[in-house]
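## Example pair
The file below holds two records. Each record gives the amino-acid sequence first, followed by its structure token line.
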Amino acid sequence: MSRNKVPASIFKAYDIRGIVGETLDEEAVYNIGRAIGSEAQVRQQKGVIVARDGRLSGELFAAALTRGLRDTGRDVIDVGMVPTPLLYFATHHLGTGSGVMVTGSHNPANYNGFKMVLGDETLAEEAIQGLRRRIEQDDYYIADEGKYRALDIIPDYVARVVGEIKLSGRLKVVVDCGNGVAGVLAPALFRKLGCDVIELFCDVDGNFPNHHPDPGQPENLKDMIAAVTAHGADLGFAFDGDGDRLGVVDGRGHVIWPDRQMMLYAADVLSRHPSAEIIYDIKCSNHLGSVIEAHGGKAQMWKTGHSLIKAKMKESGALLAGEMSGHIFFKERWYGFDDGLYTGARLLEILTASDMTPDEQFATLPEAFSTPELQVKMAEGAHHAFIKQFLAEVSFDDGKVTTIDGMRVDFDDGWGLVRASNTTPCLVIRFEADSEASLKRIQGLFKAAMLSISSDLELPF
């Protein structure tokens, strides 16, 4: 792959992501480093922190990225193999405001990519396309080689979390890292907070030999549910491949999806900031907005995507935000970035502060008939073309249509959503309703509409 032929397809809406050896190789990564370094120069950012997750290509790509950054005169601080939240933490703690995480997040083992922050702005959309244009046009800033140093950021992060979070009781927690990079830290962190921890797949292995590290998919939670039941644990935490998302199951093995978790986080934040704005993505339950408003908060639905949510938080001053995928962003008492580890700690703090057991607290949260995130895999780019045609040709006369991100249709008795994923080539679909019958009716409406666009779709509902 020559320097001007880095595939445009790897430049996603809120990160860079490709297949190792096919759409992403060492030379491409070096040039991505030069492009990021050149943009950092424009933004007057001298120091850039680099970190990587546990993927097999991570060490090689982090080194190539570092060379590219240093060749533009950037000083690189390498914090090694850590979860993505620790890269974000380091940009605040060390005062650089800029960093690049080498991560494929929850994508298959043969993927890798980059999440980027420059001058406290998480790069998204047009800023990422700007990096692509720099590479295509060979438009790099040339400077004397920048400095390099390695630094262990884990002790500082642990000290900050343990100093911030105080548990009022002791809970038994199963921690499933899915062989992702959260394993370098999560068990030790929760033990330090005072929990009894049962470890599941906490050794880092980029082959992901046990199950895929994506807590958004129910099949990836089966092992944790079995362990919670077997050990009589109070709850279970599952992390995605780079540790910025959290999945939760209660002591009975029931999944507490992130939109229901957000009800607890929102009530807690609003107990101290009664009129705060709280943002949630378009995939979340209607009940979440109702809970936020019932506690005096301002509920704001927004587009899916960690970069887009962070930008909206910055613009609005929101103190909390969350996505159905498990990205949770605390601005109150924290920094406003998505952090599965810190989110787990906040949940433990909330649960131990109550006289009720965790199961009793979860049972107080309103629940509807709903599906998890459903996916329809498509060819690269075909999912965006499908949504464009869907928006142009489909109408729902008896529902309120929202098109900030795909199409969500709210009816009196529930809602449905179809959108294009910005991380993998697939459609993402979700439904919620007041009854099983309403759920089936809304699914039927969407099925007919989607098949009218592409009759050969294999729909999972």
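Second record, same layout:
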Amino acid sequence: MSDWTHSTPDPGAGAGGAGGPTLDARDLRVTFQLKRGMFRGRVPLHAVRSVDLEIDAGETLGLVGESGSGKSTAGRAILRLLEPDEGSIRIDGQEITGLKGNELRRVRRKMQMVFQDPYSSLDPSMMIAESIGEPLDVHEDLTASQRRERVGELIELVKLSRGHLSRYPYEFSGGQRQRVALARAIALNPRLLVLDEAVSALDVSTQNQVINLLEEIQQEFDMAYLFIAHDLSVVRHISQRVAVMYLGQIAEHGPTERLFERPGHPYTEALLSAVPLPDPDVQRSRERIVLPGDIPDPTNPPTGCMFHTRCPYVMDVCKEVEPEPYPMQGGGVARCHLHTDGPKLGGGSVRDAERPTPSGAGISTGF
């Protein structure tokens, strides 16, 4: 492969990652104003609430949670596809929240996104060569032959052939289209790649192929990945760290193995209980935690801990006081009063807490 794929950062585009994280987002907040009828005005919906995310070069951070938890909104806000209300977003040390016009355009080459549906993200009227080459037309000054060669290298990098470049999106399978979308996303050698449910629409075997491809590309180009997904088994495989979102807030984050083996938040424990296990005997014998109800209305969130309306361990303090992040044994933090009140877990696993017994509400076995 030619040297262009290892190009140096854009001069004037920031610190270039000198010892710091590739992504450093602090106190990120996104609010939508929803209209409530013709004469009732608007009501704020706080989709992202004081979120902190940090990802190093070559690292994958998994971002998980139920639908409506704010995962995709956070990912889009980091890329400035949605404008955050407050907070700081740094890419390789460069603050990007105040950038506009040409300054923002220059820094966009360092951060790209792969969407869930590759067919919707590809123009059906454009040949694959045109789709992959579009970022090069916008950000690079290339001759026709240089552009052709780069596009050819990109399509081969995602394990497709140059013969595919003259085809249209409808001629490809879902997995092939996602490879094309990935080739376009990495065309400018970005530092950060946001993958929003990028493999959830694919069958299992194709998922594995695309995940292996993502790992190869990350290893070669040292990119940082924000991997947004519902499938925790996939997240466990690809991520070094995991952040769990609930109602726009990070409920828990930490190293992947610690979080999966010793979760510190009841919401994390419930999500993990739904992950199928390969051993049928263990699968049948383990306890499945079924949370009652749905995520509360984000325009009128509960007081105190926002999870208390569905939590099987709820205490009086949970209804009144919002928990602060508590450091977990093994790394990371969890926002839960169980660590300081009641059983006083002190950073241990929520699985060590005595489970409430009244009628077993919210808890079932099996699936």
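Notes on the second record: The chain has twelve helices and 14 strands. The domain at 3-239 is CATH 3.40.50.300 (Rossmann fold).
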